[in-house]
Amino acid sequence: MLSREQVQYIAALSRINLQEEEIVLLQKTLTDILTYIEKLKKLDVANVKPTSHVLPLENVFRDDAVKPSLAQSEVMNLSVSHSRGAFKVPQVIE
Amino acid sequence: MNLFAQSAHELLDQIRSRAISPEDIDDSVRGRIAAVDGRIKAYVRLRDREKNSASLQGNGSFKVPIAIKDNICVKGEETTCSSKILQGFKPPYSATVISKLQEKGAIVIGQTNMDEFAFGSSTENSAFGPSRNPWNTDCVPGGSSGGSAAAVAAHEAIWALGSDTGGSIRQPASFCGIVGLKPTYGRVSRYGLIAFASSLDQIGPLTKDVTDCALLLNLIAGHDEMDSTSANVAVPDYTQFLTNDVKGLKIGIPKEYFIEGLDAPVRQAVNEAVEEFKKAGATVKEVSLPHTEYAVATYYIVATAEASSNLARFDGIQYGLREQPKTVRKTPIIDLYEETRDRGFGWEAKRRIMLGTYSLSSGYYDAYYLRGQKVRTLIKQDFDEAFQEFDTVLTPTSPTTAFRIGEKAADPLSMYLSDIYTISANLAGIPAISIPCGFSRERLPIGLQLLAKPFAEDMLLRLAFAYEQRTPWHKESVPL
Amino acid sequence: MNDAQELETVIGLEVHLQLNTESKIFCGCANRFGQEPNSLTCPVCLGLPGSLPVLNQKALLYAIRIAVALNAQVQPFVKFDRKNYYYPDLPKGYQISQYDLPIAFAGFIMISSEGKPKRIGIKRAHLEEDAGKLIHDASANCSLVDYNRTGTPLMEIVSEPDIRSPQEAYDYLTTLKLTLQYLHVSDCDMEKGSLRCDANISVRKKADSTLGKKTEIKNLNSFKAVKNALEFEADRHRTQLLSGDRIIQETRLWNDEKQSTVPMRSKEEAHDYRYFPEPDLVPLTLSEEAIEEIRRVMPELPAAKWERFRQQYSLSEYDAKILIQQPSIADFFEACTHLSKEIKKICNWIIGPVAAELNARKVGIEVLNLTPIHLVDLIKEVETGAISHLAGKDVLKMMLDTGKAPATIIEEEGLAQVSNSDELEKIVSAVFNENSKVVAQIKEGKETAMGFLVGQAMKQAQGKANPKMLAEIIKRRITDA
Q: Which domains does chain C have, with CATH numbers?
């Protein structure tokens, strides 16, 4: 069973502010799923290479050529909050 | 016959002979949407005819309405993955598949409902509420491309695009009684497809018949320099393989797929389909895919890990939803992230992000993610071996027909297991097609899945077409 | 407690280098500094949903060049990984970087430490994308995000903890920067942020085999700041250790005004970056031949150039060292040597008057109006006596201001010396006539008065007489008479 602290740690890493009942429910459902996933431990994979890409593609590049960017106004149109051509966010403290 | 009820190739023939105009079809389909979408809820957004004027007035020869899953970017149109977190997001660019389709005159008529970020198999996990199965509106249309499948089945679109990460095209195609193809990984550009699991996602067609499937694949397939994972493999004209000849082709039946949990009507329909292939001259033999039982577990590790990272960008900084709590909990910026993501993501999205984050986190990577990637290799090898001997592997698409809305909502694991037959194709990167092969006693469609080696979409279409020519299923119409 | 003398400072440096490709690492946006905020962005570098990265081949080439210059092993199988963390300047919520297979590893550079050569190991160097820029607006209680910098190709170069003093750190950075400048892969400009440095420092007893608790120092805006910050931290560590206090492992910010470090205010969270292979980029395989080809066309590096300059041009160690300090100056010098055999004079002019002008004008030689042929001509004018050495320096200034040829300036400004012997003979005759007494005195042996005659003649020539010729004529006439 995943502990409450584990769920809270993962939630913090995931940047999700979970409600109390969500923590309890996630403890259970995540544990169920992880228990199901345990079945992979039956397999001996010591000498198996991991697959990150199913296609045998390699060395895909683009040339170092400049293409037009979006207009600043177009980018600001996307934004939730902006000021002087920049995205505005709460003050970030360093 | 109403224009909306016809296939794309039938309509295109009539446009070419000038019997009808693209506007006639557009009118017919829009009328149909107005009449039935209140019951089906296939669409989350419709797109005005004026916005398609470039397509309508251009030289393209495929001027029929197409429905687009809400995770494929259409320039200037809100594109949200049916999630609250992307509300208001209007991409300043179109996905490569959209550009390709529009060049050929396609009419993007609307965007279809889906499980939020494609997380689900029922289209119930949508911020817009569930879509319904046109064959029985108490049932789910499948998912996650449920809106696209329902739209095509209910004749609210002539054809549609979906995306398939673990069966999200094939399973709803099966539940809705239409044709759905997941192409080989790399066959269709992913540029502009809002990623769920980057190494598994593919865009593919949902159509009324196999001919339309071949035509639509022709339009969207091909190398894209904007997608590093798209393959530089020549695209044939897929319609040339619709020959109605399967003599001598070898079909493998994987014994691991015909197990407990497979509904009897589905088993029976698939067995009858096998007999049909035999009659057509194909040879059928049992094959073993020994690592099948590990596919779902592997998938839920790999897919959720990638998803947890892919969905990190939805943080309220640039676009979409932004929520800021009134009082400071941690720091203003962290509060913004946590509040936005708490309010913006639905329950299943949170669960999958959490699962993926866990399997990548310090101390668990080797036991989960790395092991998952290794088992993925074994699953791929199973297929490599099978395709040494067989031209295709034939399975049910789903162990059941469409289930009732709400039936599996409380049990995520049972929902995950409904993808048991479709997931392996994504893990192995191979193409797979679902075609209708019958109905249950409740008049719910049953789907048959064919799988082939990478880039053998031609083989799938050839087999599927031959089967379709011998069976009446694709001609059945929904009771709407 | 041990004496402070027995403590040892251990330093490792992380350098981030922006590569000066035309376009960004994963998209076609221009890689340029100082533009309007968010005017050099596109769906890819903004991390908009659905966008995908494609690797700029030039960035890879530059990375391999750096690997070779750092005497490093080049990874034959290169892949990218995602480093997952949240920060407003990181639009995707992850940085595309390299984790377990950095493009370069196990390298080193040689520095000169207190006159002796010392090897500083390079642990690894990897390719990644730069983040955007946060502008803090305390008055408005907000921060502004500009994504122009996002996706600038970045090479992170991590040294081994082989550095033993702040001065060594300074020397390492100077040597590293010079090496990188020779590769023409970066502007290496700390002010513009194209070269950035973070430092790790710990102090331990010399006999200890393990490292002490380290602090990481950020916000270092110059090599001088690196040195000062490390000196401050080394002292702080020593004082704490000697007084029995424990060092807290933390990140500290250098305050250049106060010349001190302070702990970072943001709460340090456990770093759990959840690295995994980037599924949107395919792996790269670098064949031995491909790397060899890059090695073959590598520009000459500073150490080699220094050696060669001394051999080929018989320059002193010092002269050669000065010439190689800037690749553009070294190139300029070599271009001059193709035009004239007066190697020593060329060298002296470059490291003397030319360098003085560069310093005064705070520019590099490449942006000045100076061509090798003009400098060589100028040197000729001085050497033949057409103008004086002093006038030569003035001519140089005017050449830099106007870009004109030295001969043109000499003519326009009337700076030419009178080197016409007939004319000089006339002047001398006149001076001799006017000063017959002095001439007589010289003949009687008062040779010191010779200078007076030269002075008078120069006065008559309005200062433009060739002094050497003038002296010769006067000497001959006295002897002959």
A: 4-289 (no CATH), 300-413 (no CATH), 421-480 (1.10.10.410)
